[in-house]
Specification:
Elements (H helix, E strand, L loop, with lengths): L1 E6 L4 H10 L6 E6 L16 E4 L12 H20 L4 E5 L10 E3 L10 H14 L7 E5 L3 E3 L6 H11 L2 E3 L7 E3 H14 L3 E3 L9 H11 L5 E3 L3 H8 L3 H7 L2 E3 L15 H9 L4
Parallel strand pairs: 1-2, 1-3, 3-4, 4-6, 5-12, 6-10, 7-9, 8-11
Helix pairs in contact: 1-5, 2-3, 4-6, 6-9
Amino acid sequence: MKKILVTGANSYVGISFENWLRQWPEAYQVDSIGLRGDDWKDQDFSQYDVVYHLAAIVHVKESDSEKYFEVNRDLAFDVAKKAKQSGINQFIFMSTMGVYGCESGYIKPETLPTPKTPYAISKFEAEKLIIQLADDHFNVAVLRPPMIYGKDCKGNYPRLANMALKLPCFPKIENERSMLYIDNLCEFVRVVIDQEDSGYFFPQNKEYVNTSELVKTIAEVHGRKICLTRIFNGVIKLLGLKVELINKVFGSLVYEKSMSEYQVNYQIRGFLESIALTEVEEE
């Protein structure tokens, strides 16, 4: 049995991962721990095989930007050092596609990270520190996922879903986005643990996602029809030069698909099924 410690109690990804592994109760034991305060330093890590580090902060006031580095870099490195000192075999660090500093573009294996925001910079600096701990007895896996979505997720996806349920029309834009459904992420992490892998990983869905088709699909799942129109495209193009959020929604940003190929299939859900499962109403 693999014993896994998830840092970041009550995180969306952490809870989803724990629920996912309940399918195999004889194979995995998952515990979670919060890292607020110093109590975690007295926790016995030696009983675990894997630490899956999810604890992080994403949004703080610009005046408090140093907190990104205190939590996302320094705390992460401290947890990794404790994991190694405790004899743990594998440390999985959740980073971000944001380390590339792109709001749009085509990321290839040779693309170098150039993080721009405090959040992304803090994650990238944590990567560099933690990867140095890797050796023959301590495997470090760094994940740089694109936008993660699923039932009850946060971020841009629910904003788009809200538009799909309210707007009669939506811009028809020809773009492509790398995205990652939560079940596919959970399965990916499961097999990384089984394989005891180390290195950098770029999990994503097999299909790139077009923002307009995403909104249309969400509407259809709810029995709505929404028209896609190009009438707004000129305005969107102009706004995209000045407004970061426009690029996040309508720009193209993808990983080259070869970067996400893996020795074990982790693509449990296709695009249409993933949207249906995300939008299913609670009974």
